[in-house]
Amino acid sequence: MELETRELLRVFVGEHARFGHRPLYEEIVREARLQGMAGATALKGVLSFGHDLAIHTSKLMELAQDLPMVVELVDDLEKIDRFIPVLEQMVHDSASRVMITREVVRSGIIE
């Protein structure tokens, strides 16, 4: 199998962040599909803290609020570059706060 150099974009967002009437993480995945991205996956975190230092966990019902969601997108550098302004506009329109990370990865598909 040959691995290709790609980019991984991670978007960290609270599960309660909304874009219109839908969760922002769902809309990010939908928009990535519309933009022709190679793929996107939304993952739910079970424990986190962020800029406010509040612990978010799925262990206790009273603390199980706004758990972290991570959307991962892998594609070519150019497609990631084109997607980031779209993502920024979505976040701005949702009045949410997200964190993104970006890194070079090597990927391939095994069939």
Automatic annotation (TrEMBL):
It holds the Pfam family DUF190. It comes from the Bacteria. PANTHER family: UPF0166 PROTEIN TM_0021. Belongs to the UPF0166 family. This is DUF190 domain-containing protein. It comes from Chlorobium phaeovibrioides.
